[in-house]
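Quick one: structure for this chain?
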Amino acid sequence: MAAVDRVTVFISHAWKYEFLHVLSALKDHFKDEPDTIIWFDLFSNNQHKASDLPYEWWQTVFKSAIKDIGHTVMVMSPWNNPIPYTRAWCIFKAYCTTLEPKSRFEIAMSAKEREKFIKDVVYDPEGIINTMLSVINAEKSTAFPPQNEDRILEVIRKEVGFSKIDSLIFEQLREWVIGIAKKELEINQDEERHADLLHMLGMLYKGQGNYQASQPLLEEALEKRRATLGADHPDTLLSINNLAMLYYMQRKYDTAEPLYLECLEKQKSTLEADHPSTLPSINNLALLYKSQGKYNTAEPLYLECLEKQKSTLLDRVFLHSHGYYQEEPEEHLHLTKLRKSSPGSLSISLLMTPSPAWFVISLEGVSHKEIPDLMVAMFLLSSYPHSKTLLELLSPCRPRKIMLYFCNKVIVRLWR
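Got it. Here's what it folds into:
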């Protein structure tokens, strides 16, 4: 039921958002608190007159009002394009919330967007945080009309400074993500999912520099993944590497070394000997030996890593020299996309993971005459024994579209 009362939550959002998307996010966020009284600027503020307000008003009335409310909810949709963090209004509101130690800061998403966000954070905790933080730059934030932008930025400049406010917003956002991870961990019952959430929260604490909180979480995650997934599973190897890295960052070199060695040994036994996924493990082990002063042991590892990196780089250069260009990464897949369109009907997309454990080649309009051009797309896959077989399959089929998935096994899907 609608009501008028003392405000308990300040709503921050970008005016660029569609109104119904904002409402959907707020409805989902407050579904368990239906009697919440919110301050929503669309109904409470005349933005056309805001530019006439003096500097003192922004520095006192506006700032103290948000501080006194003590609870700010920022609408963010989609999470991987956080428009509010590019808006001077929203950054200043988030800053005002930090002025009261007991204040709460939350981010509202629709149920669907929240589910997608959690899934992506589990996949790459540090990468997702960095993606969100990378857009925060108060000095380059914008507002409309321009007079408002000038006044808000003037307050930030005089009151706190751009570097300081960026730092405050960084930590505020990171704390919110950690809070979300904790809640997911509390309500989850699935054993395998539990290990993923433990790893996610451990990595978030690691990124925050809170190693004491991170270590037991990463240790438990590794133990659960060994039990549920097996010792050679990629997620288990990831846990081994990340726990070793945490030990290294705490200078627990003797504890980190056997984990680094185990990870590298298992990667070499389950992947090709020269597989690019082994490069981070080789480099990490070399760095460990260097930090221990074992320079004669570190040097050959650094040289091995360098030679393999040169080989991988040459592969990329080869593709670019044959007309491939890089597109934006596929959303939520964290892939590098190289694409080439020939004068005819052939269009080739080559997707590669950051550590290419698998590839996808997508071809449209393939004809028999264009098979030689396909050889270029297959170049990076030349180490795979399946390449020749695939070409033999392609020639007689002449399909209109083909998706070739490369992993430990090969799946060929044909559309006619």
